Amino acid sequence: MPTIKTTPEAILRSSWSLFHERGYKNTSLQQLADAAGLGKAGLLHHFGSKAGLMHAVIEYGIEWYRTRVLSIARGEGTIAERLTAILERQFQLVQLNDGGGCFFANMILETGDGAFAEGLVHFYKEWNTTVTTLLAEKFPAEEAKERAYRIFVDYEGSVMLFKLYKDTSHLTRFVSRTIAGLETPLNF
Could you tell me the keywords of this UniProt record (predicted)? Predict the structure, then answer.
């Protein structure tokens, strides 16, 4: 197969999409190479192995989230407006690849505490720190931390129901519930 010149970022983007759509175990090195427009040798030259590529994809995904989703927390607007914008942006992403869900949650469920756990934990910690910091503008530190945790758990449950039923109402109801909850006392 003739290869085309491509950048490491283009390889990461195409691989992220394929892993999101098919999962880690159901994606072959040949499929990844084809999606990137490379031969397998070219792909291995850049990343060493399929696992090496997956590590790089996770780090690329975290950086992508940091700059395009989580950065919203430091923007203008009320806490409710910024949190709504973050959640709506995330929901745009979970609807990609025919409603593929949350890439990071999919990989956590598929690979568990295996070789990719460190990067997946890094994603959760970054998400949690960002949302906790945002909520700390309104709530005491411990309450902000608990609220961020509950938002994440509720978010992932809503994404699972969206994937199961292909019904975006699970996502929109979650956002409404979360924003309304900002005005409700939290019971520990």
Answer: DNA-binding, Transcription, Transcription regulation
